[in-house]
Amino acid sequence: MPSSKIQIPLAKSDIGQAETNAVTRVMASGRLALGQEITAFEQEFATWHGVRSAAMTNSGTSALTCALRALGVGPGDEVIIPALTFIGTANAILNCGALPILVDVKPDSGNIDVNLLHRSISGKCKALVPVHLFGHAADIADIMEIAATHDLAVVEDAAEALGSQCNGQLAGTIADAGIFGFYPNKVLTTGEGGMVISQDEALIERCRAIANQGVVSGHQATTPGMSFRGNELGAAIGRAQLAGLHERLAHRTELAAHYQRELTNNRQMRIFGFTNSVQGWFTIPVLLPENTDRDRLRADLATDGIATAAYFPAIHTLVGYEHLASRYELGVSELLGSRLIALPLWSEIEPHIAHICERLCFHLDPP
């Protein structure tokens, strides 16, 4: 996309005086790693979610890698994921030496189809990783029941679902562990960063050790690990962001509802997966009509100064990941991966929403 013409970006981070003050506080302290900001952010994030413990990492992918390794996932194991998700979900499993097993998704939400799970569970399967795609809550209750039947661990990939709810429970709090990502386009950002949360404090301690080269204290390593640590600057920004999270989530819900009204008024379209359930809006996904030239549409919108994204291609359609294709059909994932477009979402987007939707519909159905 010709970025020089973009006037309405896809995302903007909500960074204000509170975040600036937080960074200044850390710089004045002189401590940039493994300090009190990380400890406080972990505690505050766990409290916000009503869980016992949390461990900060340097990305959502690192968080998922740590959680899976802490649950015993390793070489030769299989881990089931939806075929439609960000590549980081698959990469975390591959980082453990395990094999991602792709399962097709539901056409209404893009989340893993629980009716297809049983046939993909083999004797090598160690865990399930349901993804709350775009903040849409996956069918966690059914997934947990299936996991219990087969003695499988479950990690919720809630990287896009901070603040989303599953039958009244916050996403990430229901399974053995939940993971989050704090990239700048997320509802809460630390610049780069992630978090693992769980009611199991021992599990979080293992995650913390894995993220710190396997070290618990001093230089004594208890398990092979990686350098996945968060940092004090990111943690301080995260704490400032967390303080205003309820308000930010409520505002994003209002913005999503505004988009939904505009799309319905302009053309019988809708935000993909839009429901009245509590949802932490990561972006505004729209399912395009059949036979739409998505690349041409995005180029036309870019010419209008509007940034968009093609979220997400099915994992097995990506170069280098073709070997993950299932023996079962993944047609829904392929279809959605080729027809979804993400529209801009950030705190001050409201004055632009009507224009964005008008231009989208114009290019879909020009006069």
- Percent of residues in β-strands: 5-15%
- H/E series, N to C? HHEHEHEEHEEEEEHEEHHEHHEH
Structural class: alpha/beta
User: Could you tell me how far the N terminus lies from the C terminus, measured between alpha carbons in angstroms?
Assistant: 24 Å
> What can be said about the biggest beta sheet?
7 strands, mixed
The CATH first-level class of the largest domain comes to Alpha Beta
Number of H- or I-type helical stretches: 11
Count of domains: 2
How many runs of DSSP E, i.e. beta strands?
13
> What's the Cα radius of gyration?
20 Å
Strand order of the largest sheet: 1-9-8-5-4-2-3
CATH superfamily annotation of the largest domain: Type I PLP-dependent aspartate aminotransferase-like (Major domain)
Structural features:
single chain; 367 residues; alpha/beta; Aspartate Aminotransferase, domain 2; Aspartate Aminotransferase, domain 1; seven-stranded mixed β-sheet; two-stranded antiparallel ribbon
How is this fold's topology laid out?
Blueprint: H1 17-29, H2 36-49, E1 53-57, H3 60-70, E2 78-82, H4 87-95, E3 99-103, E4 125-128, H5 140-150, E5 153-157, E6 165-166, E7 169-170, E8 177-181, E9 194-198, H6 201-211, E10 215-217, E11 220-221, H7 232-243, H8 245-266, E12 284-287, H9 294-303, H10 331-339, E13 340-343, H11 350-364
Parallel strand pairs: 2-3, 2-4, 4-5, 5-8
Antiparallel strand pairs: 1-9, 6-7, 8-9, 10-11, 12-13
Helix pairs in contact: 1-7, 2-7, 3-4, 3-6, 8-11
